[in-house]
Amino acid sequence: QITEALLKERDKQAKWNGIPLLLQKLYEQSHPNSDFSQCQSILKEISPLLSMEAMTFVTEDRKAAQESTFPNTYTFDLFGGVDLLVEILMRPTLITQKKKQKISDDLIKDCLSILYNTCICTEGVTRRLAERNDFVLFLFTLMTNKKTFLQTATLIEDILGVKKEMIQLDDIPNLSSLVSSFDQQQLANFCRILAVTISELDTGSDDKHTLLAKNAQQKKNLGPSRAEVNQATLLNIPGFIERLCKLATRKVSETTGTSSFLQELEEWYTWLDNALVLDALMRVANEEAEQSSTESSDESGLANTSTRTQLPQSMKIMHEIMYKLEVLYVLCVLLMGRQRNQVHKMIAEFKLIPGLNNLFDKLIWRKHSASALVLHGHNQNCDCSPDITLKIQFLRLLQSFSDHHENKYLLLNSQELNELSAISHKANIPEVDAVINTDRSLVCDGKRGLLTRLLQVMKKEPAESSFRFWQARAVESFLRGTTSYADQMFLLKRGLLEHILYCIVDSECKSRDVLQSYFDLLGELMKFNIDAFKRFNKYINTDEKFQTFLNQINSSLVDSNMLVRCITLSLDRFENQSDAKVAEVLSECRLLSYMSQMSMRMSFLFRLINIIHVQTLTQENVSCLNTSLVILMLARRKEKLPFYLRTLQQMEYTEKYPGFILNNFHSLLRFWQQHYLNKDKDSTCLENSSCISFTYWKETVSILLSADRTSPCAIVSYIDEAYMDIDRDFSEE
């Protein structure tokens, strides 16, 4: 509505660079009956003004960029440019006439490109677009067109990143045929978008949320969450999982022709997404090109033409790594979701594990090449290079794959499975059903299975490496569930126990996360296994070493309590066996002798109860409560429960603070009932890890919580009336 004259007059002073005038022209050219023929030339004028700014934004340090302003994109948005482009893009969907209007691919590309640049530079634009559900769903329909696929995908990814409400994949028109129209490259890029739609919004800090808050949240959410519904939608797309498995396991040499890839790279380049990665790629490409041209200077003419069309290997590898990252992430989320068993079956059938095993040396754990890709200002080991993210994603996938699932034996090859059977026969114990039932046609092939390869790289990992945590978690999840002597021996034979002890004691590991994962792994490896305790004693063979080990355990009981639980349970079982070998280890092993002292067990119990409170319980530290319960259940079996409670009472008096431990423990146990007796709660984990029936857990808690002050096993009998503080309800804040 502003006159042209006024716009012209203000333009210079306001430094609008003619953008309002161009927008006015665009508006006139895009009336409902126009053929859009003029629009493109107008956009071609606007586009460079905006892309220059976007370029600055991406290449400058982000912080500096946020403080500087981007006048062109701001002006473009201020004068309604964003809404106008959305309207032009969506125009064909509004027309019902038989003669559908066709917008040229180039025009669509330009519109998307400008929208993306505006989103990057101007605060709030992305959010505004995200609120328009019709536009977001419309963007998905543009993905069927190969020529505009990348632009569309990048814009969608940006928009979904800020969208408050997660979209329902079900709402996307013809989702199945859309996905089946993608080639493998597009499917990998599509996985980037899917990642946002299938992950719970705040899973990042899952361990940190208090259980009270989580339980309260669960009461509110009765049905499945949007992410869960979206996971189910994906699984119902025919052939979806199979294609992901193919993508995840294809070799670099199998990737498609180079020309389309070069063209795609150019698109990416003008498209600015991941500019950092591209700069790095381009640098490597140039280095390799220079190398090959100096090597064959006499045929330089030939060399140059071939380098032009042939892509450097490291670039292909990088490309492949970035694809696999997205795919493994999606598979990993699905493996942890509600349809876990269905996903497991499919992943096994489509041979994901043997496929990854074949890629292990060449791609996943490859040695960095001389020109290893390092992004600006980063070193090779910082956690944001694609190489590193791929390794972590791969380890997370292994962890969720083998956690409490019989398919975990697919991580071995046939010889290794035979070795497990042989271990069982030799020890005269029945073979595990899951080993017998493993389909040998789906296991790893080659000299080693994935698990053994993982152990090899784990031992070579430098002390301060960030992978140690994930490696230990992946191996530990293989041992989780019902304790299997054969599984433990398989790993003990490969020197895992010595490696863990070396890290805990000799390299005096300082990282809390790594220590926790090593303690958990050590607990699973040694539980009920007399040979493991014998090996432990052989390695920790001086008082000094043993003291260092104890110091590490005591430095943080939240991290080491699973190991304390394992030693307590093992000691209890060994004391009830009448085997000469067991008796010998019992008398010699420093660790078992230490734990058999009543005063030590009491000290652990006292501290375990003291470091947690109902208000601060999380998924991570609730194990301290269960470990303290294990100590008391074993005491109850030996009819020593009253003695333990009385000792706790005396310890309170020594600390000059009567009631503070027992009142707290009373509240914790009431919370335990509320939490574990919930119908959705899975109690098999507690049973499997302790070999104590869940009924016994429940009974013990009831006895401890009895209100009868004359009962020798009730906590209240040991709190003086004056110090009673147990009737408060938990606030679920």
UniProtKB/TrEMBL annotation:
Region (Disordered): 288-308
Xref: InterPro entries: ARM-type_fold, TRPC4AP
A biological process term (GO) from this entry: ubiquitin-dependent protein catabolic process
Source organism per UniProt: Tinamus guttatus
Keywords: Receptor
Domain of life the protein comes from: Eukaryota
Flavoprotein as UniProt keyword: no
An example molecular function term from Gene Ontology annotations: phosphatase binding
Pfam family, one: DUF3689
GO CC annotation: Cul4A-RING E3 ubiquitin ligase complex
Membrane spanning stretches: none
Identification of the protein by name: Short transient receptor potential channel 4-associated protein
